[in-house]
Amino acid sequence: MGFGERTVVNRTPGDNGTQPQAGAGSVGRARRSPDWLTGVIMVAPVALLIAVFFVYSTYRAVYQSTRIESPIFKPRFVGLQNYRDLLDGRFFRQASENSLVFVFTVVPVLLVLGVLVALLLNEPFRGNTALRIGMILPWALPAAVAGLVWKWIFLDSWGALNGILGRLGVIDAPIGFLSQSRWAKLAVVVVFVWTQLPLASIFLLAAVQSISPELYEAAELDGAGALGRFRTITLPGIRPMLLIVALFELLMAFTNFDLVYALTQGGPGTATTLVSYFAWAESFRKLNFGAGAAMAIMIAIAALVVILVLMRAMPKGALVDDSQ
Questions:
Q1: Angle at Cα 58 formed by Cα 55 and Cα 62, nearest 5°?
Q2: pLDDT in tens, 275-295
Q3: Entry pTM
């Protein structure tokens, strides 16, 4: 063999460890199998709970919505008749209109006030920590308790608000905050905003504090004022959280029941009857469980549509960090 010539040695798969590369893959697959099985075992209890409390209850509601279910009448299958009766009914249309007006009133108010409160809490001042702790109280109260508390405030003849206004000489006679339609609607809006504003403000405060202070410093050096910094830095920075808060509060407003039940019970008349309260009234006042189930299905479908629309409006990565 001359100088510079190379010797080619043919190795069999068993020589000097060339085979272990394939063996490593086999070992890796063998190691992954127990991990997969462990994951299935850990997820199984949760999946079972979902199946019991969601899948079965949804099936039962759909099944019940296609039947006459009442202790007064004999149960029988009626198909989509419950849905047709609801859509043709005047009270359902009134409740739907009340719900739409309520939702599109409280959600913008909560977003605007939430941003303002978040900006206030983001500023350093004496008592900031105490204010943050204290403002959680309205949200921590159950909605039914909050409704009862405010009912004592809004009562006509001996409510606290009428008493204060009368002593100050602002009014000569008590105002029917809960007995007049326009005042009752306003009362429900005020109490709902009072209960939900703390959580919306805390979420938006977290979004404001996640914005880098260097951006504000650079904008200030460029001559941007407070309004300009808010428009170009703060608002784009909190937009994903604004959409999340809007989605959450929209669903809370659309399914609001216990607050209305404790405060006005849908009155006066049907002035404050929302779709969730209407569904309860159909089921437990009229004992028409089939119509109540149909109403619940319609509420769930409407909520799902709203969720899908707002989820598509959210920027990519708003809910999870997919940068990696």
A1: 140
A2: 999 999 999 998 999 999 999
A3: 0.81
